[in-house]
Amino acid sequence: xxxxxSLLTPATILKxxxxxxxxxxxxxxxxxxxxxxxxALSVTLKKGYLxxxxxxxxxxxxxxxxxxKLGRTLRKIKGYDDNNVSSPVLKVSPDGSYLAMDxxxxxxxxxxxxxxxxxxxxxxxxxxxxxxxxxxxxxSDCDGAWDENRKWISNANRHLPISxxxxx
Length: 168
Hints:
4-stranded antiparallel β-sheet; disordered C terminus
């Protein structure tokens, strides 16, 4: 049997280096560019935009971690807490620039170490698709509709102009 020193000839070391470089190149070329695995839900919006939810809530028709996808770019929605959830019911403005979606906070409120209360807070957010950012928080659910002038009309017939500025 040959000792290890005699197996590591300059030619063998060169072959080993080439093999390692090819393996690294293979990893770089075939690496995934997006999140690991498949998204839980993808919804096609207007103007080539896609809303992607990365996680589904077990036992409910609710989703977490929404992302805006345009082409190969997947962007987190600024101002939307990934711990909160949304339903797949979405309302896109007529011109395809804005999206109204649920913003539901779910969890426990602890009165003491032994006493807790389950809590849900339903609200609605208006998202600017181009900026991938929440531009308005509404203290109601997303019951309402867009008018032809890009204004959100709630069920109380309040017209909310969309200015592109972050407001509450």
